[in-house]
Amino acid sequence: MNQSVYSSAGSYAETIVQLTHIMFVAAAVITLLVVVLTAIALFAKPSWKSKLSKERVVVWGGIAFPVVTLTILLIYGFMVLSMADLQIEEDESVQISVVGEQWWWRFTYTAEDGTTFETANELRIPTDKPIVLRLTSADVIHSFWIPAYGGKLDMIPGRENVMKIEVNKPGVYRGQCAEYCGGAHALMSMYSVAMPQEEFDAWLKSESADAASSADAKGKQIFLGNGCGSCHTIRGTTASGTIGPDLTHVGSRISLAAGTLRTSKENFAGWIANHKQIKPENKMPGYDYLSDVDVEQLATFLSELK
Amino acid sequence: MPDIRGANVNASSALPNPAPRDPQEKEELLRIWASPPGWRLISDVNNRVIGLLYMGAALTFFVLAGILALVMRTQLAVPENSLVSQELYNQLFTVHGTTMMFLFAVPAVEALGVLLLPQMLAARDLPFPRLGAFAVWAYIIGGTVFFSTIFYDLAPQGGWFMYPPLTLSEYSPGNNADFWLLGIGFIEISAIAGAIEIIVGVLRTRPPGMSLDKLPVFAWAMLIFAGMIVVAFPAVILATMLLEIERSFGWVFFSAEHGGDPLLWQHLFWFFGHPEVYIIFLPAAGLVSMMVPTIARTPLVGHKLIVVALIATGFFSFGLWVHHMFTTGIPALSMAFFSAASMAVAIPSGVQIFSWIATLASSRQRIAFTPPALFILGMLFIFTVGGLTGVMVAMVPFDWQAHDTYFIVAHLHYVLIGGMVFPLFATYYYWAPMLSRRLLSERMGKWCFWLMFIGFNVAFLPMHVVGLAGMPRRVWTYGTESGFGIYNLVSTLGSYLIGIGVLIFIIDLVRNFRVGASGPVNPWKAGTLEWLPGDVYSTRSIPIVKSREPLWDQPGLTEEVERGQHYLPNAPTGGRETLITSPIEAKPQYVMQMPGPGWAHVVAAVLTAACFLLLTIKAVTIALVCGVGAIVACLVWVWELDKGPGAGPVDIGGGIKLPVYVPGSSGHSWWAMVIVMLVAGSLFFSYIFSYLYVWTVSPEYWPQGENQLPSLERGFTSALLFALAWLAFWASRKSLAQPGSKNPLTPLLVLGGVLLSVAGVGNEVHAYYQVGIDPTESTYAALVYMASVLNGQVILAVVIMGLFVVARHVAGKLDAVRCISLENTNLLAYYALAQALVSLLLIHGFPRGVLG
Lengths: 306, 852
Prior knowledge:
By secondary structure, chain A is an alpha+beta fold. Chain A has helices at residues 11-43, 46-52, 55-84, 197-208, 217-225, 265-278, 292-303; strands spanning 94-101, 104-110, 116-120, 122-126, 131-137, 142-145, 152-155, 161-165, 171-176, 189-195, 255-256, 261-262. The two termini of chain A are 23 Å apart.
């Protein structure tokens, strides 16, 4: 599922993996050293023990050794730290704004023609190009974390944090909110698709377009007739709410409800009927009064919003 | 006048008192120090009774919070489990963390201080027995109510760190968060009361001859522990005050849309929260440094280095708090600084670990693997691993990945369970014979150790892996596809093993722990004073100390002390008393008269707890009635304390005659009041930090020109009122009449000081109101009023104490000699007025002077 720190998709994440390996090995060696010294103190013959019983052991082992190793580690750490601050020219990068909300992600892209459009819970980016993510929050503190891209950064009300990344390996990566944000924090995930530039351009074009007009007008009527449009936007229809996620191309996304379910017609139906059980405390009103047929048609409509 | 430097102790000559002693002396000591029988034991204040109660309560909270952890582990054992609901799970981890930190770890350590310190120092009791008992009762009542909220869905669910805005009313309606804020705020006050007692106890109730270089390491650790509480806890008390005020009254401190900043909470919380880790660890390390020499039958190798390491850890720990905030987007330079500081703190820990290994190595015989020895060896391993993962997360880029994942859950449990719980269990097995007639079972102790050690590593080692595999903390469930399942299952099984280990310990405790004085004397052949034979009165006489391990280096000491040949073998004032010595060289200075059992402090504790808890559920009127009742009970309690010089001076042996009543800067209550001032000063310092911090975040809310700025004339008026109040308090001390007469001017001056102080605060608040400053509109405005809240609360204490002093005057209990009540009131008043004057400089001066 690629939510691992080790599934690095870029050179910076790879550097952190290296740092992790080095530190793990060093920590294991030091632990072993302490265990061996303790064993000597407990079981060795008196001549060994007496060598270990001097105050200079404390000075060398407890002061000199950590000072040297920690200084080396610290210098290495500063070098890795300075690599995080990518020098990026504004016009060469892709700028995406990300807003953390209880309990989903709002992404705003800029289309080719300079207009902006929204999508949700799925971050698509081109490979081999600097990406600038502008992170903010609409309510409480969240933390934006896609381990494969190398590290997390908090989304704090009243502040904008900027995360710069560059990804080399195309693929699908999973991310999850890392700062406890109340209620359904455990179910606030996302997918990120890193794709070559041409594919990304094509996606950007289709994603910025209005919804493909669905053949199933019945589901659309149910959607609009039950007030779904006061919270959700489907571009190209009268639904223009901004409280919940933009659903213009929801059928083309990998997951529903911020990484909670795989996208499928059945899961759309299940979500509409049971979302309070699937993702407790989520802010969508209950729709248990809809008939099975209505739910079915609504699910068909949504799953076809590609 | 007494010699404030203290009497010289002639260590080389004959023993201070001749033997045999009159057998009636011991009978009198037993009678004076006897606990009240039956249910009236509740009114007892003796450190053994109170310490056991304290430890019992802390252990109970440990078990309860541990059970919550087992419920959480069961929920996480398999993916997509539905055993526990999302809401309950969020409450469980909040209450687990909060209980372990605030209701178990800190109280357990303070309980050890109460139990062990007077014994290690051969003092009859800690210097403020009723304050200690008050703190314990307040903690037990407050803690029980807080914990029980988990049973009726009232428990907070904002995490033990309670970050706003999640914990503001908008996102956390209901009283749940208030239970955390008021309940924990209140328990912090109880911890501070304990810290005051510990500082004065360590510095002033040592036996003659125990200069600081001979102080047991545990006492050093407790001194630093208490000092850290005094500096660190006020920061979180201010944070909880600000958050509760924002929740209840809408003053804006943390809301970004009014110029506040959620990160202000994080700075205040972690300025407390990181030292908190060392507050928990240092005393445990001190205990290990006491047990290792006994186990090895040889003095600690590198004793001085250990003491320096403890002090260094205390200092470093205040420079680390930002490492909890590496992912908040703070500037690279401050990340580099805090990263380096976080690594530096590993050095003192290294010193201690190597010193323990060297001490074990210098043992001339084979180490016996008793339960205390096993728990210490287990601690060595677990704490080393936790320290090393700590160095890993101090590396900022690694922390960006590991932060808020199960890697951190693993790390913090390795540090806290390795650094505190294992030493605590070693302590239980090691020091139980000091209190119990029987040792705990060695066989069960070994079972307990191996189950806990293996269970711990099985539970927490896989968490490092699952964290780096991408599992965040504080999630109530995870998907099957995540692949986290197998690691979690193993962790859950390990946690059950820990549970069984703790259960075996409890069974052992029930079967073998019997409180009584006739236990084995010094079963481990240790060298420190707590292993002197004793009874309710502590030791029969107070020994002259000539080395760090007096029982090893002073042959015959045990018998001499028991025969009553050392100091104070009797009760010359006819009541409870202990020897007060000078802070550095421990020269006898005076005999302190101590209070015995009483009810007023119990009533005060119950009513204080009731006041806070009723405020939580917004029953304001009854809460205020309880609050007033609590104050009255406190006044009743202290009425009989300022006894005067009546019974002195008394002979303690060795030709030393000591007074029993000492006002001025060598008195114990003067010291306590100075520590109270440090606490209040630390709180106010946190406030100044908050003011300046918010200004750097949103300077646009600060007054431009005279708009929203209280007028300078009003500021000068306030300053004048505060200065006059200062003068009045100063003059009141001068006006005191000689014993036997009264000066009518004294109460007038005290009342004048009180009224002028109150008028100063009133004038300030009115000045803010007049220029239209509204605390619900901007954080600047809320901070302006907050200065008066902080000044007002100290001045309220001065008002109450001032009225108390007036009552003493009327009752004829106040004169130029018997003046401690007045002296302490004045000390606090001087502090309060100084703080008020500094706040004037900040509120009136900063916008004008700095901003122009």
